[in-house]
Amino acid sequence: MESGHITLDSLYQHVNHDPCFQSIDGQGKTGREYAALATKLTSNIPIQQGFYIWGNYEKNSLWRTIYLGKASSGKTSSLKARILEELKDERIFMWADSQPNLNNAELMRLALNQYPRKGLDKHFSRALRKKGTTHIIWVSTPDILKDEILNIEADLIETMNPFANSMRPSPSSGLLDITIEIIKRFKSEIHGLR
Q1: Which residues, other chains included, contact 147 with Cβ-Cβ below 8 Å and sequence gap of 6+?
Q2: What is the distance between the alpha carbons of residues 181 and 185, in angstroms, rounded to a whole number?
């Protein structure tokens, strides 16, 4: 089991220089530049199964968990792949912070004008729940059995209380020892970043 984190500063710098939302289109020049930055940012995340949290530090320096996700061990579903995919596919959340004068509806309208695709309004709406994220922390769990993952995820969601997770399964058991170890890893990264 190992842990680490990424800081989204380089992506925010890119977005701050793109007030017209051109990077929303992943096929355009600025969209490809954004994707290259995200790829570089995630290059050291392992291709393993595990859990990850999106979050930030509030003004009082307390950590706020925004979203909790899980990844499996496949090349396209690993920690590295999942985090990179979310940074690319859900990139609209970054403009919510760089354009604080716009509410979510205005932000979505401008983004959809720039990149009109069927179904993106629902996708963008979900992505905007991640606004405010400045860090993503991950913990690899290569030795966890597949039948333990859902119980661990439920424990982590209840304990870490990520407000962007719309599905919140109830834990079916007491806190598993492995869940406690994962929480310790998350907390170690959180305290180290503070």
Answers
A1: none
A2: 6
Q: Give the neighbor-by-neighbor strand order of the sheet with 3-7.
A: 3-7, 135-140, 50-57, 63-71
Tell me, letter by letter, the H, E, C secondary structure of 50-65.
EEEEEEEECCCCCEEE
Residue with the two structure tokens 């920690």: 79
Tell me the pLDDT tens digit for each residue of 141-187. 999 988 888 889 999 999 999 999 877 777 776 777 889 999 999 99
Where would I find the beta strands (DSSP E) of the chain? 3-7, 50-57, 63-71, 135-140
**Residue 109 in tokens:** 């309208």
Token pair listed for 173: 């058991």
pTM for the complete prediction?
0.91
One-letter amino acid for residue 156 of the chain: L
Give the integer Cα–Cα distance in Å for 18 and 149: 39
Dist. CA 126–CA 124, nearest whole Å: 5
Largest CA distance in the chain: 50
DSSP tag of 3: E
Amino acid code (one letter) for 36: A
Give me Rg for the CA atoms of the chain: 17
Residue 82 CA to residue 89 CA, distance in Å, equals 10
| DSSP state for residue 168 in the 8-state scheme | -
